[in-house]
Amino acid sequence: MKAEKYCGLCGQKIEIEYEPRQPVRVICPNCNAETDWKFYKNGNFDTVTYLKDEAVELHERMKKA
Questions:
Q1: Residue 61's pLDDT is what?
Q2: How distant, in Å, are the alpha carbons of 23, 27, 44, 52 from that of 9?
Q3: Which residues of 27-37 are buried (b: 16+ CB within 10 A; e: fewer)?
């Protein structure tokens, strides 16, 4: 299955291929934040985002703006 979601840090559109109930790790091409997505059959999803050094710098710049 496919879904279009957005990076929780920078807002970059990301296409995700997934199987229900199977976690998928996606790396944002814009800010390099890693996000684990877990989709369910009813359309709900859970996410966990991990910030690398580049993503932390971008996050800090966004907070100051």
A1: 73
A2: 19, 11, 20, 12
A3: ebebbbbebeb
Q: What are the structure tokens assigned to 8, written together?
A: 């929780």
Measure the CA angle with vertex 56, ends 45 and 13; round to 5°.
Answer: 45
Phi/psi at 51 (nearest 5 deg)? -100, 125
Dist. CA 20–CA 1, nearest whole Å: 8
| Helices H / strands E in the chain, number of each | 1, 5
Q: Which residues of the chain have pLDDT under 70?
A: 54-56, 59, 65
Contact indicator for 6, 13 with CB cutoff of 8 Å: yes
Question: How many CA atoms, within 13 angstroms, populate the side-chain half-sphere of residue 15?
Answer: 2
